[in-house]
Amino acid sequence: MLNLAVIIAFVCIAVALLLNFWRLIRGPSLPDRILALDTMYINTVALLVLFGIYQGLTVFFEAALIIALMGFVSTVALCKYLLRGDIIE
Amino acid sequence: MLDLLTSFFLVVGGLFALIGSIGLARLPDLFMRLHGPTKATTLGVGGILIASMLHFSSLDSGLSLHELLVALFLLITAPVSAHLIARTMIHLRGGTGTVVDEREAGPQQGGTDQR
After folding, report:
1. How many domains are contained in chain B?
2. d(CA B8, CA B4)
3. Which of A40, A84, A85, B103 counts the highest number of beta carbons within 10 A?
4. Cβ separation of A82 and B37 shorter than 8 Å?
């Protein structure tokens, strides 16, 4: 039961990542691509947590936390670069 | 019983994440596209984290609260990044486009995002 639910969630997240990647390639403007990258790291956090449930290990939460932190910082850095032409003034 | 609840949260979280990404891929405008990831995908990841919390709390003897940290961080940072992306888009296309009087009045064009 739980195994089937984990596999269904895996398939959903994988399709979601493919759709995000399509938007990342296709996206007409630069903020579209930043938004696609933002959604990709959120989906990657979900994928890591799912993999932790699947394996029964708790090691993956730290990796998920680090990916969440770095993804937010990279989104802010890309947006600041587009807004001001510089990241740290 | 707890297994059933965990499976429910897993499936609902996965479906919400998928719905958010479909919204990102299919909606026509960037300002519409912002709604999918910032709301639906965050809710989906929150559902998966709740499922993980239930699962590991039932496996080990102790309560497992690592996931709460990730969920809290994502819930705090999703609106901030969406706001920044929207501001970047407004800046790149040169102002909000709805205020006409400001452009005719003075030299500061498209004034909201020039701090």
Report:
1. 1
2. 6
3. A40
4. no
pLDDT at B61: 61
A contact test, residue of B63, B76, B85, B91 with most A CBs within 10 A: B85
CA distances in angstroms from B91 to A24, A35, B85, B113, listed in the order given: 20, 15, 10, 6
Question: Is A72 close to B77, i.e. CB distance below 8 A?
Answer: yes
Distance in Å, alpha carbon of A88 to nearest chain B alpha carbon: 15
Residue B86 inside a domain? The answer is yes
pTM, two decimal places: 0.83
The whole domain housing B10 covers 2-92
Interface predicted TM-score of the whole assembly (ipTM), two decimals: 0.88
**Residue range A7-58, pLDDT digits in tens:** 999 999 999 999 999 999 987 888 999 999 999 999 999 999 999 999 888 8
Distance CA B51, CA B72 (A): 15
Put simply, the answer to whether B10 touches A20 (Cβ < 8 Å) is: no
Query: CA-CA distance, B38 to B112, in Å (whole number)?
Result: 23
Whether residue B97 is contained in a domain is answered as no
Residues on chain A touching B56 (C-beta within 8 angstroms): 53, 58
